[in-house]
Amino acid sequence: MDVVKGKLVQLRASYNAKPGSDLTTSTVIWNFVGDSTQQVISYTKGSINEGSAQFRGRVGFLVNMPSSDVSLYINNTQESDSGRYVCQVLIPDVFMEPVEVMLDVKVPPAVPTCSLSGKPVLKGNVTLMCMSSAGKPLPLYKWRRTSPTSEVFFAPMLSE
Q1: pLDDT digits over 84-96, tens only?
Q2: pLDDT tops 80 at residue 152
Q3: Burial of 59 per CB tally in 10 Å (0-12, 13-18, 19+)
Q4: Angle made by CA atoms 54, 56, 61, in degrees to the nearest 5
Q5: Among the listed residues 32, 38, 139, the one whose alpha carbon sits nearest the alpha carbon of residue 83
Q6: d(CA 99, CA 11)
Q7: Which end of the chain is more exposed for a tag (fewer CB within 10 A), N or C?
């Protein structure tokens, strides 16, 4: 799943509850799995806990808990939010497979810094370069030669 940095993303997950089951007995845990595992948010016994400081204040469940819709939202996404998210639903006496979602936070390119090296003289060589300090994926630049603008010269006038 892709999102642009700074935008809101919804990571969808749900499970089929048995009719008449008590959803308040379930525990829902969303983890971010990177170099280390960090808890994003959890719900248990009527209480919601925002986990790691990286996500605090930016995450929540899409619907009021308890619910069989355990979808997560992340607001103001950051590049560091890119990675694997795992949702576990724990229900007494019921085994459920965790759900995994991959998130890729795209970063718009920064305004490029462009430069010219060499002397722009007839039959001379020059090198044109452009670089952006930010952008994910890395910005690619294409150069295109355009026709020179026509210059109009007026002959000197002898009268007004």
Answers
A1: 999 999 988 778 8
A2: no
A3: buried
A4: 120
A5: 32
A6: 10
A7: C
Query: Which residues are paired to 29 by β-bridges?
Result: 42, 88
Q: Does residue 158 carry a pLDDT above 90?
A: no
Q: Which comes out higher in pLDDT, residue 91 or 53?
A: 53
Integer Cα distance of 1 and 3 in angstroms: 7
Of 129, 128, 132, nearest to 107 (Cα)? 132
> Alpha-carbon distance 88 to 72, whole Å?
12
DSSP per-residue codes, the chain: -EEETTS-EEE--B--PPTT--GGG-EEEEEEESSSEEEEEEEETTEEEE-STTTTTTEEESSPSS-SB--EEE-S--GGG-EEEEEEEEBTTB----EEEEEEEEBPPPPPEEEEES---TT---EEEEE-S--BSPP-------PPPP-------S--
CA distance 72 to 60: 6
Mean pLDDT of all residues in the chain? 89
Q: How many CB atoms lie within 10 A of CB 107?
A: 19
